[in-house]
Batch of 4 targets.
Target 1
Amino acid sequence: MPTELRRPARTFTIRQLCQEFGCTPRALRFYEDKGLISPERDGMNRVYSYKDRARLQLILRGKRVGLALSEIGEILDLYEIGDGCATQNAISLAKFRERIRALESQRRDIDMAVDVLQEACSRLEDQLKQTRPELLEQPVEAIRPRRPRPGEMRRAG
Amino acid sequence: MPTELRRPARTFTIRQLCQEFGCTPRALRFYEDKGLISPERDGMNRVYSYKDRARLQLILRGKRVGLALSEIGEILDLYEIGDGCATQNAISLAKFRERIRALESQRRDIDMAVDVLQEACSRLEDQLKQTRPELLEQPVEAIRPRRPRPGEMRRAG
DNA sequence: AGAAGACCTTACGCGAACGTCAAGTGCCCG
DNA sequence: CGGGCACTTGACGTTCGCGTAAGGTCTTCT
């Protein structure tokens, strides 16, 4: 089975990856600046491989769960090690175990937050059913560009 | 049943809450500045009630799941509404539904991240078992204050 | 030829969430 | 009554994760 059939050796432009994952070119270049991805070059232009794409996916996932880019970098490095320094690996291992515990605790937080929000939604629904049932099930922007409230948020940007 | 037995009407100083929840006085004042908590005063000093404490807990939970302080503020406000403007409530409802979806997706991300990390841990363990089995099961700091690596992270703070 | 895109680099800017002084107040303790 | 501690209010500094010009290169279309 020829290699180009097993995996078409496809490459991606920066724009393509951005569209696929919903991020900006600036962000990708920023990640590269931080050493998280290192695409090939065609002249000046960046050329991303499947591997780069996979890394990007991990980066974005990590971000969404609140990892800092530096932490994501450590995790990504792991896949390049192979025969690295044992002490270093031991440190990584301990760190990752900590990370796992943190993530699991975070998952509990999420569950609780969802509960809170869902209870809040029920209360709101009840109220709306009694007053303005036609406003239910609307997407956010279909409702109205909110007028300025008096005591909204004191100095928030 | 007298009230002071049902709930001792206890209050907290800023330091006490900080110790309990592992944050700094600066952070608490910052949240207050943003309108997320409004403790009473004894002269100049802040006096936190059980209610304030509960709000703080929600704030920190929200933070850990990646909510911005402004979003946390909206959620907290909900518990003060009662008979608020219906349109406003409808907007809140839609927003919260969105938030719930986001959180559930985030939960999936966490599950995947945990998988990644756990797989990574297995690989590291295998390697260490073959090379330096005595380093296993150590907490991070018991191992060694890491020596400076050459190509660590190019410009990360 | 000229204009339009898609890419590049450099560099300054920004908002969020605090950290970190500096300077003052109130209260207890020896 | 001086010292120390916990608290206060500014006000400026910092880090992270990019956004946003400004200007240059290369290809491609008309």
Target 2
Amino acid sequence: MATARKQNPDATSTPAVSGHSAPSAPSAPSAAHHPGATIYSVAERAGVSIATVSRVLQGAGTVSAKTTQKVLDAVDELDYVPLGAARSLAVRHHEAHGLVLPELTGPYYSELLMGFESRAAELGQSVTLLLTDGKADIARAVRQLATHVDAIAVLGSAAMPPAVAKALHGKKPVVIIAGSPQEGIESVGAENAHSAQKLTEHVLGHGRRSLVFVGDPDGAPDIHDRHAGFVAALRAAGLEPAEPVRVPFREGEGEAVAERILSGDITADALVCANDELALSIMSHLQDAGRDVPGDIAVVGWDDVMTSRYVRPGMTTVRQPVRELGELAAERLHQRVHGAELLAAPRVLPTQVIIRGSCGCAAQPRATPPTRAT
Amino acid sequence: MATARKQNPDATSTPAVSGHSAPSAPSAPSAAHHPGATIYSVAERAGVSIATVSRVLQGAGTVSAKTTQKVLDAVDELDYVPLGAARSLAVRHHEAHGLVLPELTGPYYSELLMGFESRAAELGQSVTLLLTDGKADIARAVRQLATHVDAIAVLGSAAMPPAVAKALHGKKPVVIIAGSPQEGIESVGAENAHSAQKLTEHVLGHGRRSLVFVGDPDGAPDIHDRHAGFVAALRAAGLEPAEPVRVPFREGEGEAVAERILSGDITADALVCANDELALSIMSHLQDAGRDVPGDIAVVGWDDVMTSRYVRPGMTTVRQPVRELGELAAERLHQRVHGAELLAAPRVLPTQVIIRGSCGCAAQPRATPPTRAT
DNA sequence: CTGTTAGCGCATTCAA
DNA sequence: TTGAATGCGCTAACAG
């Protein structure tokens, strides 16, 4: 019965003396893990009030050097770990941001997450991660997440029901990353259409005329935009774009696409792929079948993954500032939590076309700093 | 002043009648986001007590269908999002696990994280991620993390001061992943020494006699074990192992190592590398310089990253059940939180040697299911 | 089946 | 510079 508080159901509600926890048992000598040290045990051990303990721990108010030291010692001896939930309840803040991603294969998500975590940490926020792929009830998971965080960032391609996003929003700040801007929800992203157009123009510049877009424009908002840029470039060149080859961009799909090309089901002298994994896989299978890339057919991707530097020919692609995108999202979340207004226009970060050999340019020695264009 | 509670500083502490929040204002008609809906507002709106609201939300106790519906409606209308902190404080746990990783480049960490998140989610736990690379005060970050979670998993190679691990442990369950088992701290990992020995024996089987290990055995516990297996294989073959080439395994290091080989500073007819990124990079630079792999020199790696299937020759390597490792860690954490005893012996998961062409075997068509050995 | 009540551990006025 | 008291929103006995 050391910690004496809130327990006077007997006495009349007059501020009875409540004997300052008299020097009864001088508490256990030293050592040993108090599994449940609380601010009360620390205060008692230091011989101060919990308010004082709180002050030194928060660095708030002014506490004498001597008292501070006593408290710090007690904290140390007791191995005190504050209970975050109690603090959160009192201050009404979780000091945590949520991030919703579909999954983590490939460098894109990881980069994004690293950027997000890094900036969040700088701002004193921890990050709680939610992966949607394979989850049965995503809406439930997101609501659960909302319970523990102050704000949430969602990747556009994460399978989160728009209804959920809207519901959350209004309760907690939400930002959509690389998604289609929704009414009243802030979004950040990397530029797509313009770079796609530049990239396509570059391929056109090699004299290719029969280009096909590989990837599903309706699968994700950024793919949609890339396709739009592709189409724009073709039209500007007086060409009529063929129907895109709509495949999801898992690695395995590349083989199927390659087969269709080899069998003549698809005819093209250049492939503009929705991302590098797809492009890489297709190129590899084509090469295995004896086709020359880019001689017979050019292949370009998007994302500039590591492998794109190692294959031959090097993969021509587009690099996005993915890490910065993550940082930006964390940053905006934090500002919004602290009262900043929702930004009406999406923030879009510039991207960079990386020219290597697969587009038809002379092969470069691989794994060297890429040539920059744009 | 709708929610009437805990406010009778006037009346004597006798259980005064406290007028049941008489049907004063019938509350706002419909619609609109109550920014701060609480269990009280929901209860009031549904015309029940907060206990009932809690019951339907927790699925605990028995509540009549009609009442349940009223509550659910109120929750819906008010767009009620419970405050996790309050619940955590009351039930005294966070329903969250922490995961400490150095960073997220390459597929290893991502896989691990996916496994961890997936299993944690199944168990109803959310995951809070902490990346140590680039953090100034890691100990502080970890303590901060400990504040919000019930248990923590740490990757062995994460730069977490052992002292912190020990401090945390005893307060919250801790498991070390792929690290050196520490006294009194549970650990899980993938098998290293034995597979390394098998792999080395395989290379030896191709007639190579001058093998060198590339990677720093003191850099991470699992590298240490792989090196040990390497040494064991050589000794068993009557060979004296050369000093390992101690480099960190960032991608950039490969070039430097390749240079030393080309310049004759290092002589070897086979390289056993600490991981695939290193092996890949070295092989690539060697090839660029005109060396034949595996003709002139064999190169093998560890991890079986995606690129290892795409390069030629295919990279011979060792696949670890990384995802399963993550799942196992989450699983153990959860069990420990729920009272399970600390496992004295480390749980170690089996690995698999993947034979492709870079070790000296006949080149395989790439990007096909790997041949299994072991 | 439902309501009352007492904390959970902490931050924070308000006094002293 | 310090302490006493109050409440954050929720769960969980305990009554009824």
Target 3
Amino acid sequence: MTRQRRVILEEIRKLDCHPTADEVYEAVRKRLPRISMSTIYRDLEALCDWGKIQVLEVGCSKKHFDADTKDHYHVRCARCGRVENLPVQPFSYLERAFRDLCDYEVIGHRLELLGLCPACQKAKEYREAAEGIIDIDEVSGEEV
Amino acid sequence: MTRQRRVILEEIRKLDCHPTADEVYEAVRKRLPRISMSTIYRDLEALCDWGKIQVLEVGCSKKHFDADTKDHYHVRCARCGRVENLPVQPFSYLERAFRDLCDYEVIGHRLELLGLCPACQKAKEYREAAEGIIDIDEVSGEEV
DNA sequence: CTAGATGCAAATTCTTTGCGGTCAA
DNA sequence: TTGACCGCAAAGAATTTGCATCTAG
């Protein structure tokens, strides 16, 4: 456990928002200004191997990292990409239910809710209100 | 609907295995040898926009494409990455269940089973048998 | 002292974009 | 005829790798 790995782990725990590799980089860089992106990636992988963190492959673009290694579900905001935990135990019956419905040997499952976080709900309400009086193209700058 | 789009759609339907962009490319190239990767990507996007196909963001690396646009679940092989359909209607109660458990406005969910496809189950059995007589490193050339 | 970790730069992989030429309505 | 589409090449974004150097044990 080197200095950079310790700092990386601490920052992921502190951020608690399921950061991506570059969000970790930005946070760690404040404490270790000379750290490089490759160290971030290599250490994130090492921390995964040691079971200190886990990777979330939400959506398909960037990987998110989670200091909570217990099995749990997530909600993802469809607009800003924010990821948060859902406070329930995973439903193991889902795996049992599918065991007889396919010829795969089922070894796990992943459930992800998709939604709008509170901030983006507000933004949406604002946009809908604005569309009533302004031309839509004027305000629909953001993508979903 | 141009020639290349028609061929792309036909090949995705024919493949029926949730191909990735480059698998589509390889298949289409047999019929349209001069087609380019950018056309593949652009036409895949257009076909999505028109609701002719849908994208699956399984795991986190490549996108897979599916000619079946009805909402449905998938199993993914943890070893070879193969993706197949699961023959059930999505469980809408999952979204209702989580509505009160988080402050997100829930707009959808994604459930993905993880397992070993029949071919990889066989490979695994073979490997386990082999490990009894050969040094593990000799046979564990494949990655999960 | 030495194996393993780091920083830097360059390479990979997947996907997107700019642009001049082409095709179908 | 003309706007949408195509192929090619180059650009981007995320991640990985090669290598010389450094550092913790």
Target 4
Amino acid sequence: MFVFYYNDFNMANKTKQYCYEYWHPSVATDCVIFGFDGKKLKVLLIERNLEPYKGYWALPGGFLRETDKTAEQCALRELKEETNLVVSEDRLWQLGVFSEVNRDPRNRVISLAYYALVEPCDVVGGDDAAQAQWFDIDEIPQLAFDHAQILAKAREAMRRQIHFDPIGYDLLGKEFTLTQVQTLYEAIQGVTYDRRNFARKLQTSGIVNPLGKKVEGTAHKAPQLFECNKDVFKEKAQSLKFELKKY
Amino acid sequence: MFVFYYNDFNMANKTKQYCYEYWHPSVATDCVIFGFDGKKLKVLLIERNLEPYKGYWALPGGFLRETDKTAEQCALRELKEETNLVVSEDRLWQLGVFSEVNRDPRNRVISLAYYALVEPCDVVGGDDAAQAQWFDIDEIPQLAFDHAQILAKAREAMRRQIHFDPIGYDLLGKEFTLTQVQTLYEAIQGVTYDRRNFARKLQTSGIVNPLGKKVEGTAHKAPQLFECNKDVFKEKAQSLKFELKKY
DNA sequence: CCAAAAGTGTTTCCGATACACCCATGA
DNA sequence: TCATGGGTGTATCGGAAACACTTTTGG
């Protein structure tokens, strides 16, 4: 490999192995990982171990490498490195591009942002992250870079997508109670629903199937467990018209 | 400026002025521009003047430059250069990132894709485009790169967004008839609506305001002209719940 | 026995749907 | 006068919304 040395005001006496005829920006990915603890929406953040913004909380993410087959692969790789969380690509959704000139104090960095909804799990810090931690969505600390903006956009995107894809159920795991679904939807949409109407709609529509099992060890009447029928959900979502009903 | 010469299998004896410590991908933008002629949905394409895919039709777009303040600015700049079409930034919507390793035969190129809905207008070719032309959305020629995939995704994104934002009316201009709106929605959603129900809903909801003017020179009863009340539209769209009704 | 959450049925109301006839205009 | 598309009212139906009491369970 050809290597040479070269100085500029940004970076003195470092190797610059990668040379191009035209200007290239740096490209990074960032992930907004949503979770749900049964009561509140959560977001997974890491504490930065490196400058800039060392010590700040931030979205997990990092630079695209030549070995990353796609930007999605980069996002998932960084997520695993920094939080030990493994997410499958079919649960990763594109959020958008953040390309403001000064969004990173070091360089021109284009961030490709993604989001995912995952079921409750443990996370640990690693690599460039001092630690990883779930935060209540309404108690987010000050974030590095423009990550607050990215997070806000992710909330809105998720809120919209939930009308079309059964992603909400990804937050609940394979089995859940109707109350959990309702609490989740209320947390996401910021509204409340009537428990009886909510339960009836979910069951009669076929979006959930009863598993014939009950939760054990509750200090009250044991609720039934259900699973999500994602095919039915998608079929129902397909019938969406303008404002969801036909004119 | 420091300049030196260097060979590799991609590009022999060219100047490589831009050097980085780490690998950087090329970043480009592509635009899917939707139009509407009163009957059919249209898409704006350019004929490529350069290799690769010289002579193929493609989405307007090009490489991100250091002078582009944002990716959006790049997209709009390239659009203007190639088709002479000026679109305002608030009508430009992010579509997604296309980052497959081999999507461009030359190099690793990340494409940031955008879409916009514009009212009918003339376009001309320029710069890297031999010509620019509107195509009926159901009569798209073979496209360069993965642009067919980008276009497909744009159609779907637009179809979803139209539930939440009054972007459909951007295709119609300031004044329009109710039949035009209906034809447009039918073209986008691929369904038909009852003319009376459609008109009533639009008017009683307050989404359109009558202008008290009529179209002139028709070979039949002259239809009224309306304008879109985008604030009302957004307010209505806000009331969307899961499947649009409250549980 | 008490607290806490689950389960369940009926009525009301509104909006979506289906449907057909007359009107205005230019050719 | 004819062809074309514009404008409009009503009856029905179904799903959404509102609403409260009983049941189960562990403590």
